[in-house]
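Recap from last week: sequence in, structure out.
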Amino acid sequence: MTKTSSFSNTLAKLAIGSLDDTRLSVEAHYNPKELALQLPVGWTSKNPQKTGFDMQYDGSQPKTMELEMMFDAYEQDASVTVQDQLDALEQLASPRDPDSTIAEMLRPHYCVVTWGEKGVHPLRCVIMSVATKVTMFAKDGTPRRAVANVKVQEVRFQKDDEEHESGYRTQVRAAARRARG
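Predicted structure tokens:
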């Protein structure tokens, strides 16, 4: 008899995937109960002496999203850990090749946050911060449960940036396949 985890039947799962390397993604084991999405609107007062009647629109600002990713390997085989998911998040937020002399490789990954096919729109982004907390360990110190609080900020690409648009389409299709089972 094969033991399956309680999260294996959840089809649409929150995931963050790289647009630079579409093989790199991390999927939450449990979906968050909430997402915080902020859309700053670029209004400033032209004359600070007046009380808000003299406003100027300075353009749209990037969205930010705060989300909680939960990982749980407790009900799986004792050798299973959540460290791989935590490592993948760290890799997405770290320079792609810190030893490179090529500027493009010195930046972290461009990413996309996906959650199934419906509801939350995929968000092209960069990871601004990751705060992880391991909440359960095996007797040997292996992390079995963890929560990662992730903050991302929207990025917009040039219309001719086919490389990142291709990565975006690949990650969105993968999320749709996972959602359909």
